[in-house]
TrEMBL record:
Tagged with keyword Ribonucleoprotein: no
SMART domains: AAA (SM00382)
SUPFAM superfamilies listed in its UniProt record: P-loop containing nucleoside triphosphate hydrolases
Transmembrane segments: none
Protein name according to UniProt: ATP-binding cassette domain-containing protein
Keyword Nucleotide-binding carried by entry: yes
Domain ABC transporter: residue ranges: 21-259
Signal peptide: none
Top-level taxon: Bacteria
Record's keyword terms, sorted: ATP-binding, Nucleotide-binding, Transport
Amino acid sequence: MIQEKKHITPKVKEKNQTPIIEIKNLCKTFGKDNEVLKGVNLTVNKGEDLVILGRSGSGKSVTIKCIVGLIEPDKGEIKVFDENVLNLKKKELNAIRVRIGFLFQGGALYDSMSVRENLAFTLKKHQRELTPEEVESEILEALDNVGLSDAIDKMPSELSGGMQKRIGLARTLILKPEIILYDEPTTGLDTITSREISELILDIKHKRKTTSIIITHDMACAKLTADRIMVLKEGVIHAEGTYKELEKSEDEWVSSFFK
């Protein structure tokens, strides 16, 4: 059943479902009067891919940045792995962050480093005890997972937009995260490459048993990847359901995403 109302409480835990992310009454205002989040409530179950839709400026990216502490909310509760991340000290928060992969819109690769160096930098930063041979093995495995083993010595400037997204994803996967947060993973890509990235997200879920939140404007990506969709409007969750349920919504604003 689709829920379409101003404030939606998190879904009741269903049998055999384990919430891995729980957000309650999340609020964030920028400046004096730019109230972006006005009480967001959501739950993501273990192994689930949740897609969040919304117009530009609706707070989609702000929500997932709050989860990893890149943005501090004004109010609310965020529980990840049953830990309230807003109450954690820096060392404890960093331990949680290692278990969460974040794929930024542009891939966020270091332009002055080769692909190998980009991945090695991330790995050594968090796993300093690895030998050079182990680092190389992990790099090759991560690149193989995204189908770009032959790009290991290339510079970011030599890669297409789609390849940069794949390398960004490889850098995320190299730490073997349990949760992956995707921020507009197909933005700026052509239709064929966008589908390849969407299929890769789905493949990673099945291979790695990851849990994901996917922020996207790309309805083809949403249709392919989403177990469930939430729609943000005016700072709250306005509607929730599967792709098929929301596609048939009688709410004009919700249905506008599917036209």
